[in-house]
């Protein structure tokens, strides 16, 4: 089997999230971090957007990272020229492929869409660029039209095809069927680009890879348009543990890059966010905490260290005597059975009142009161 590669688009689709704007320093930091953990390809922006974006792209190109850098373009020659002016050697050319998109953007004139693709592709190839072609709204496209379009792009010299589930309406089974048909008909690799409108972006990306796609777009924290994209940390860890595909990425820094991008985006993640949420290795309930203390595999799918996270035993409303004693012992406090029960009752009362678990300090001061 050929190697599956991540093509991370935090700096393009991720930044397109409503209310998100990275500054130059943040873009540089994110690009460097992605490169440092071993992401082999990064989509870094849209040169046609104007001077500030061009400056950011050119600055990232000048970093001479290991990763291949890609710029996003419409099928417009001036877009490609703007990408070239930034120093990019790889371009992605996006065309709409569904009736609804071609109707809205090209008055239904699909011949014009194909003509613009051929012209811009030829121009890019003449400049010696690597060209990826993307089918916007591939998931809702007529399957025969999609196949004919991709075969034409391949014939004209495209090096890869991006299958976009632009509005996130596929499920993993349909994704597998559609991508399998393309993969078996094409000689160029297929790339997955999935959106999370129904919470299936990561699942659909995995389904596409299972069907033979060899490249996958991700964003850190799943940042992106509307409900976002397939999350880098989820795709990497799910491929590693569920599909047994190790991409060679340094997973021990996934929490760190998640925090970097969360800060740059200005939004906190929910504590239960898959892989990198602050609760993914926190245990409060008596039964779970007791199990984890016996053997972490009871309630953890993998070791927290693998993503740079730490296990936390949290005392709160659902905690039991065993967990409470264990946490107190870590602070050198040993209580008899009666005292333990009394502290536990106080913990339950206070965490119900506060609607959260207790901090270590709060717990210790409760013990002080009860002793
Ligand atoms: Mn997208």
From TrEMBL:
What the entry lists under SUPFAM superfamilies is as follows: Aldolase
Q: Where is the Pyruvate carboxyltransferase domain?
A: 4-255
Q: Give the reaction(s) catalysed.
A: acetyl-CoA + 2-oxoglutarate + H2O = (2R)-homocitrate + CoA + H(+)
State the UniProt keywords alphabetically: Acyltransferase, Nitrogen fixation, Transferase
* Transferase among keywords: yes
Q: What class of enzyme is it?
A: transferase
Q: What is its EC number?
A: 2.3.3.14
Tell me which CDD domains the record gives.
DRE_TIM_NifV (cd07939)
InterPro entries found in the cross-reference section: AIPM/Hcit_synth_CS (IPR002034), Aldolase_TIM (IPR013785), LeuA/HCS_post-cat (IPR054691), NifV/FrbC (IPR013477), PYR_CT (IPR000891)
One of the record's GO molecular function terms: homocitrate synthase activity
Q: Which family does it belong to?
A: Belongs to the alpha-IPM synthase/homocitrate synthase family.
Q: What does this protein do?
A: This protein is a Fe-Mo-cofactor biosynthetic component.
Q: What is this protein called?
A: Homocitrate synthase
């Amino acid at each position: 089997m050929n190697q599956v590669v991540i093509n991370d688009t935090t700096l393009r689709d991720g930044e397109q999230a409503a209310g998100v704007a990275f500054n130059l320093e943040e873009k540089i930091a994110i690009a460097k971090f992605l490169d440092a953990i071993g992401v082999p390809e990064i989509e870094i922006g849209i040169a046609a957007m104007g001077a500030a974006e061009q400056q950011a792209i050119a600055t990232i190109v000048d970093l001479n990272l290991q990763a291949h850098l890609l710029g996003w373009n419409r099928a417009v020659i001036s877009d490609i020229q703007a990408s070239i002016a930034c120093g990019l050697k790889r371009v992605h050319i996006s065309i709409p492929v569904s009736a609804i998109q071609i109707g809205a953007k090209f008055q239904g004139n699909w011949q014009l869409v194909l003509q613009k693709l051929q012209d811009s592709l030829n121009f890019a190839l003449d400049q010696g660029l690597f060209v990826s072609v993307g089918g916007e709204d591939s998931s809702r496209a007529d399957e025969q039209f999609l196949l004919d379009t991709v075969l034409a792009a391949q014939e004209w010299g495209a090096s890869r095809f991006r299958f976009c589930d632009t509005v996130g309406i596929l499920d993993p089974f349909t994704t597998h069927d559609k991508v399998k048909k393309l993969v078996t008909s094409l000689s160029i690799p297929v790339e997955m680009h999935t959106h999370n409108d129904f919470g299936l972006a990561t699942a659909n990306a995995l389904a596409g890879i299972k069907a033979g796609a060899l490249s996958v777009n991700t964003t850190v924290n799943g940042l992106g348009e509307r409900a976002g994209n397939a999350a880098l940390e989820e795709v990497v860890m799910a491929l590693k543990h569920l599909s047994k595909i190790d991409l060679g990425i340094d997973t021990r820094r996934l929490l760190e890059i998640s925090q970097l991008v969360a800060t740059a985006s200005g939004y906190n993640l929910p504590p239960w966010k898959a892989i990198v949420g602050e609760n993914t290795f926190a245990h409060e309930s008596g039964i779970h905490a007791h199990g984890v203390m016996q053997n972490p595999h009871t309630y953890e799918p993998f070791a927290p260290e693998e993503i740079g996270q730490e296990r936390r035993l949290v005392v709160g409303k659902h905690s039991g005597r065993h967990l409470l004693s264990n946490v107190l012992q870590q602070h050198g406090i040993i209580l008899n059975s009666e005292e333990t029960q009394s502290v536990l009752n106080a913990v339950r009362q206070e965490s119900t009142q506060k609607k959260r678990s207790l901090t270590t300090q709060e717990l210790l001061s409760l013990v002080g009161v009860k002793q």
